[in-house]
Amino acid sequence: MTDKTVLITGATSSIGLLTARELAAQGARTIITGRDVRRGERAAVELRRFAGHDRVHFLRADSTTIEHNRELAETVLTRFSRLDVLINHVEASFEQRWETEEGHEATLATNVLGPYALTGSLLPLLKRSAPSRIVNVTSGAFATIMRHPFEDLNAEHHYDGLEVFARSKMLRILWTFALARKLASHGVVVNAADSNSRWHAASKASVFLASTEDHAEVTGTYLEDSTKPAHATMRTLDVEDQDRVWDLCTTLMAAAKGPRPLPRPRHARDAV
Questions:
Q1: If we measure between CA atoms, which residue out of 176, 168, 136, 173 comes closest to residue 149?
Q2: What is the pLDDT of residues 36-50, one digit of tens each?
Q3: Is the Cβ–Cβ distance between 166 and 194 less than 8 Å?
Q4: Which of 2, 35, 116, 241 has a CA 20 to 30 Å removed from the CA of 247?
């Protein structure tokens, strides 16, 4: 990984920081993001000390809005000439409902719309750096969703923090599979890693997807506990639901200021 550049969002603590430690220790130029500058700078110092090199960078980022994610992408594009791995680790769960300045429920905004905006804005750099990888960190909690994932999407009529979080993770994995289909012929592989309470196991899954040559050309998978494939639900494998999430993100991103949204992915059977 010594010639690779890796960006890990929300990596100033917990699983994200453990993932950054492992990749930095392998020699990767490691970029971490977070909202708290003091915590971020401390994390960067810790990573440099642990890895034994100074190719560790902290970028302050507010991950709750499309526009802020676009600004983060612009900073990355300005400061770095390549990006080999993007790990969308940032996530949030809130006990009470609130809306971002763009009018979106905050969990949906942080866990789904933000990563979509960031990834879309960084795709040109990821493609130029190909073969490259995108790892979307999700959670097995998505399998607990009983209601239709698109029902009351902005949680205006009913709000349960855990349920809204789990739903956002289902939407993220649906988007992951859609993105994998879209990028199948562009040299960018896209996979999902399970984030759970077993921090070391979860970080290993992300590190494996980001760095191992054994998985270099495998795309559209969901891993848990290091290298073990997890069983996706029937709903997450539903191409119509995958495209519906894509269309949702595209519509909401188009409504925000900035670059044009990504085109809708073609069905696998239509790919060339």
A1: 168
A2: 999 999 999 999 999
A3: no
A4: 35
**What is the model's pLDDT at position 59?**
98
Pairing state of beta strands 222-224 and 5-8? unpaired
The contacts of residue 77 (CB under 8 Å, 6+ apart) are 121, 122, 124, 125
Ordered by where they begin, the domains of the chain are 5-158+194-234 (3.40.50.720)
Q: Is the whole model's pTM more than 0.85, yes or no?
A: yes
Max CA distance (Å), the chain: 51
Nearest to 90 by CA among 136, 55, 44: 136
Q: State the pairing for strand pair 29-34/85-88.
A: unpaired
What is the Cβ-side half-sphere exposure of residue 171, based on CA atoms within 13 angstroms?
30
Whose CA is closest to 253, among 62, 119, 93? Answer: 119
